[in-house]
Design goal:
The structure holds two protein chains of two kinds. Chain A is built from 14 helices and no strands. Chain A is mainly alpha-helical. Chain A is globular and about 75 Å long. By secondary structure, chain B is an alpha+beta fold. In chain B, strands 3, 4, 5, 6, 7, 8, 9 and 10 form an eight-stranded antiparallel β-sheet that branches. The chains are: A mainly alpha, B alpha+beta. Chains A and B meet through helix 2, helix 4, helix 6 and helix 7 of A and helix 1 of B.
């Protein structure tokens, strides 16, 4: 029986190469080459800086990177998985991370110094020592980080097709930036010994890790995505107004963070309760933006949810999707429940096939939104592919049910 | 498969020009704007005596910021000097009289008695290079990297020491934030080379 069914099944269930997911490696795109050249040049600066830190304090340097991995890896997956319906191509996501870590940091290092000189020479060293971080770094750093999202768009324009995409790429740039910047602070500012690195980690990650560059650039990314994805629905002035407005909001939040305004940090040296007051002090400046960005992300999610539903409902009349599958697809929790149930009925192989089917049905929705013709060959192929996956899933469930 | 048409060739290049302009402005614009501001500052005097028995010639753009007083060791002694600045570069000059040691000993003493007590963390080059000033006085040159409380970034410094035959000893501590010293090192060495002691 099992052999007979195996003989009926298609030999291999290849995913069609739709080409709708674009990788970083667009050899014919000038933007790709400019990105590479700038990234390579900036990498030299950052590697030299990191080498100086390594020779300065090898133990502190290693601990700094270890701690930043402990923070960075979960943060990476959290941001990556936030895009519930359409995960971005990994090569582009990593490119965004690298731009933040190498490109934006190096350009900002040069830019901050140059514009810092202007502030120092215009207003004097006393004023500059208090205000230069609030007046120059927010502009310089938000612009250099935003360029990472702009590059992603110029290299793979179709990959930024929703506000969540902008947030994901922006947050990844911010995450790369914050990792390298924190290592700089741990070794360069907090002294680089074990105590200094741990103090730096507490201040900059434990007490402040929820705020900062990930939020700022995530917000800027949403703004860029708004400008480039609403071309046919929103007047140009409004699109740019909102995009620039979100950028200015990120700059303002960054500037507030760096400024002496609302500074309720306890006086050094810190003892006892002071250490507990530090997260309160960072929250005073960081929580308002965090709340705003969470609201923006939820709005972007709802928008994507509506987009997905509208796209998939039109597919109910075809072979690629059933009503039951649609209901499960619309909520991540329902999707997970369906996969758990599949595992119970058909084992891990059935669960894996259902996971694949759900992913391909999301791809079906993506293709649906981009192709107006109902009988376009790409749509027909994707529907057939989903139907084959469903058959394969049902076979695996049935095989399990008849197994001794 | 029907792929979407590639962007119009013009649209592939125009945004890149915009990106390059933004990169150039954000990265280097500050130096361009700060340049004229620096030039408005009065140029440093030619070969001026800045400390008893020590005259320096400042390259263009460098300015005398003022007198410095730094603690020496734990005994509460104070070393008086003068600071010169241009942009992110600084040179602190100190002089002693009646010094009987070598430039190497002077360099080590400055590191141990002045820099290390002030630093949170510090490293200095063990081996020193030697040089001869235009005046014919032998000197020693070393490098250090350190973090100092209240200073936002690590400091790189090039330390030059000379001891004149009449016992006047001079320390020239040229320093800048990490990555910036290379921009000023030629100026710093010119100040050292053209210095007149005694």
């Amino acid at each position: 029986m099992a052999d007979e069914r195996g003989a009926e099944a298609p030999a291999v269930l290849h995913r069609p190469h739709w080409g709708y997911q674009t990788s970083l490696f667009q050899w014919r795109q000038p933007a790709f080459w400019l990105f590479l050249v700038l990234l390579a040049g900036c990498s030299v600066l950052i590697v030299l800086e990191q080498a100086a830190f390594l020779s300065f304090s090898p133990g502190g340097f290693a601990l700094s990177w270890l701690l930043m991995l402990v923070y960075g890896l979960p943060a990476f997956f959290l941001v990556y998985l936030l895009d519930l319906y359409e995960r971005e191509p990994l090569s582009l996501v990593i490119a965004a991370l690298l731009w933040g870590a190498l490109g934006a940091t190096a350009l900002a290092m040069l830019g901050n110094t140059g514009w810092g000189l202007v502030v120092q020479q215009t207003f004097g060293p006393e004023f500059a020592s208090r205000w230069v971080a609030a007046l120059t770094a927010p502009w310089v750093e938000e612009v250099t980080k935003a360029l990472g999202v702009v590059f992603i768009y110029l290299i793979a324009r179709r990959e930024i097709d929703g506000l969540m995409d902008g947030f994901v790429y922006g947050a990844m740039v911010g995450l790369g930036f914050t990792i390298v910047e924190d290592v700089f602070y741990f070794v360069g500012v907090f002294g680089g010994d074990i105590g200094g690195v741990l103090t730096g980690f507490y201040l900059r990650v434990v007490a402040s890790g929820l705020y900062g560059h990930v939020l700022y650039t995530g917000l800027v990314g949403i703004g860029i995505a708004y400008v480039v994805t609403r071309k046919d629905r929103v007047p140009e002035s409004r699109r740019w107004g909102i995009g620039v407005g979100l950028f200015l909001m990120a700059v303002a939040a960054h500037s507030l963070w760096n400024s002496p305004v609302l500074d309720v940090f306890p006086e050094e040296p810190w003892e006892g309760i002071d250490w507990l007051m530090i997260p309160v002090a960072t929250a005073v400046k960081g929580v308002p933006l965090l709340v705003f960005v969470v609201m923006m992300v939820r709005l972007a999610h709802r928008r994507e949810h509506r987009w997905l539903e509208r796209a998939l409902v039109t597919e109910l009349d075809h072979e690629g999707l059933t009503r039951e599958e649609l209901d499960a697809l619309m909520e991540p929790k329902a999707r997970r429940q369906a996969r758990r149930a599949a595992r119970g009925r058909g084992g891990p192989a059935a669960e894996q096939t259902l996971r694949k089917l759900q992913r391909e049905q999301i791809n079906l929705a993506m293709i649906r939104t981009r192709i107006p013709e109902d009988d376009h060959p790409d749509l027909v192929k994707q529907r057939a592919y989903c139907a084959r996956l469903r058959d394969d899933f049902q076979r695996k469930v049935e095989l399990r049910s008849v197994a001794p | 498969m029907d792929r979407p048409p590639p962007p119009h060739p013009e649209r592939r290049w125009t945004p890149l020009l915009g990106v390059l302009v933004v990169v150039a402005f954000v990265t280097f614009g500050g130096y361009v704007v700060a340049g004229p501001v620096t030039e408005r500052a009065p140029p440093g005097p030619r070969s001026t005596e800045v400390l008893p028995g020590v005259a320096v010639t400042l390259p263009t753009g460098w300015a005398n910021v003022g007198l410095l007083e730094v603690p020496v060791g734990d005994a509460g002694d104070i070393l008086t000097g003068v600071r010169f600045n241009r942009g992110t570069g600084n040179v602190d000059v100190f002089s002693l009289t009646g010094f009987t040691g070598t430039p190497e000993e002077l360099s080590l003493g400055y590191v141990l008695e002045v820099l290390q007590p002030a630093a949170s963390r510090m490293q200095h080059s063990g081996d020193l290079d030697t040089f001869i000033t235009n005046q014919g006085i032998r000197g020693a040159r070393g490098f250090y990297l350190g973090t100092f409380p209240g200073v936002a970034s690590p400091i790189e410094g090039e330390l030059a020491t000379v001891v004149a035959p009449d016992g006047i000893a001079v320390v020239l501590d040229g320093w800048a934030g990490t990555g910036q010293l290379v921009r000023w090192v030629e100026d710093i060495r010119e100040i050292v080379r053209t210095m007149v002691v005694g």
